[in-house]
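Dear colleague,

As promised, here are the two records you asked about, laid out in our usual form so they can be pasted straight into your sheet.

NAME FIELD: protein one
SEQUENCE, THEN STRUCTURE:
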Amino acid sequence: MFLTHLECSACGRQHDWSRLQNLCAACQKPLFAIVDLAAVSRTVKRETLAAREKSLWRYREVLPLTDGVEPVSLGEGGTPLLRAQKFGGDVDLWVKDESLNPTQSFKARGMSVAVSMAKYLGAEKLAVPSAGNAGGALAAYAARAGLDAHIFMPRDTPRANIIECRELGAHVTLIDGLITDCAAEIARRKEEEGWFDMSTLKEPYRVEGKKTLGYELVEQLGWQLPDVILYPTGGGTGLIGMWKAFTEMESLGWISKKRPRMFAVQATGCSPIVRAFEAGEKTAAEFRNAHTIASGLRVPKAIGDFLILKLLHQSNGGAVAVDDEEMIRTMREVGSKEGLFVCPEAAACFAALKLLQRPGKIAPGERVVIFNTGAGIKYLDCYESQ
């Protein structure tokens, strides 16, 4: 294992990785796992990865789990990168289909690594607020690890997600409110209940699982980066994780300094990052009365907002909002043209592509990657009134 310490993403304070940690003790901002990349580069070369298992754990040297410890795994990672032949028009469009992960979403990546570390460091009860897919992933990986899972979800979370969590043995509590209200309930009770908080970016290892999106994408593209990445953004862990991965891969000598233009895609009914980006702010104010059918985008306040906004600016990217009706229409268009039943969060990215093509923010011939973060089948509630 090459993990050396945890470091605050805001103030830089170092923390001990060998005990359970949530936020920075000094400023209450997210912690990042820091890997000795010089040592990694002497141990593994990018060319040797192809012979390894088709799993995110093929990148074990840059992941935090101690050598010899079996990860809590359900076969996550190794998802296909598919060429979109009909939707993209004059751009070179690709879709990274994360719906083929265990529990049918990209959340499996983060939970595999985070639950592995939580179990190794002695946690027995795990808790998470979830708009849907994160809850299902925690329920599955906690069950696999033999740990208790306590999941707090808004009462109007898609039914499929609620049933999934319950049938996987988790303790599910439905809250009248949003994911922020669920998080507040966990914060109020976790000390008394003995829960370890697994919330997005409130522990250091879910982002480590998500960074494998970046490693895997670049490897699949022949160690080249695309021109543009469109990513559905609620808590933003995927964007933050990929940016961390690109920085690490450059340090390893696996890629050049080039970076893709990163675009955060949100719903018009919950677009705190879009508002903040357009206003030139470094953090995003809480989005009041948030509403959208894309439950994964209904995050009115992201703890990693400052990290998301920073990387959008550094990459010369941006932020785009799409309304719910356009998401539903685009889901059907993508399905009929490409044979992919994408989640509404991903449909927002396909719609955003068209919005960005019109003013020339994405040019003909550019290579664009959209992430389908979950399976459309989990969102059947969206079609009941359509």
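NAME FIELD: protein two
SEQUENCE, THEN STRUCTURE:
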Amino acid sequence: MKTSVNSMANSVDFFMGALGPKGFQGYFDWLDTQEQVPLYLIKAGPGCGKSTLMTRLAQASPLPVERIHCSSDPDSLDGVIFSRPRAAIIDATAPHVVEPTYPGAVQKVVDLHHVLDNDYLTAHRGEIVALFHRCKALQDQAGRSIQAAAALLEDSRRLTAPLVNQEKLLGWARRLGARRLPHTGRPGSERIRLLSAVTPKGRMVFLNTVETLASEAIVLHDEQGAAAPLALALLREMALERGYAIITCPCPLREGVIDHLFIPELKFAFLTGSSWHPMALEGCRNVHCTRFLEKGGLRSQRARLRFDRRAAAELLELASAAQRQAKASHDELESFYRTAADFSRLDEIAEQLTKTLFA
């Protein structure tokens, strides 16, 4: 398990897309359709300075930002979301393509293709095309491993689900929400982010984001994932109904399942803890979801659950290994594009964007 370490004070880190059981799942469109944030859409090839440009803008911001990391290379950025002015700049190229709906009025395209020496790239097209194909093949390989791991985790959930005392669980969650989420009289709103993902560095979670957004948290420890999602779904519904601006973090391995829920206004979070994203944080209230299961119910399934957990862990390691190979090929691709790029022109674009955003 890896955590983010290079964080500017009070800024937070998330993913907004990751490989899942159905391939790459991204939430970049959410910024446009739900949050209605003015967007700067970067269009460019690999190695053209997209992440460098976004990093410079994040560092230039006078206020904390949200850094959106690339799950295929967590050291690179896929986006930055600014609090003032309210705006975002994102990598709008594959696999998270975003096209302008209202060009110039709401979305502004930052095209970096013109900084490239196309004659140089054409001279090396055979090598470049082969590397693109190799990257895709390795990402597909990683996706198949993740799909198989997700099936095993779903098997564990199905084995455990009949043991959950839903009346007891949802009653507890409802009382908790009534106590911790007083009515505000305002309409609620929601942001979608990913706190964790399977990456070339392994299963990665941004614990620094938890520490920044929440001074208090309740961790639902749920290894099989049968109880915590039910409670979090109810708490999400209550938070929105009672008028809170929430950050919902879906599970990258299970469609439609919530892993974590942040209430920034209250500096509070509801978190899921498991071997996939352990939440060993100081000052948290720990709730073990076995209390909501039939006593002794897991005993007969212990061997099967142990197999599922170990096999899924091995498959996720294979996925990370394939992603590391894909990243190595992508690094080779970037070397061609870096050679072809005129970075003095990129400096001009960065300077102009900095003036536009923060003048």
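A couple of things worth noting about protein two: Residues 1-115+342-359 form one domain. The chain has two domains: 1-115+342-359, 165-292.

Best,
R.
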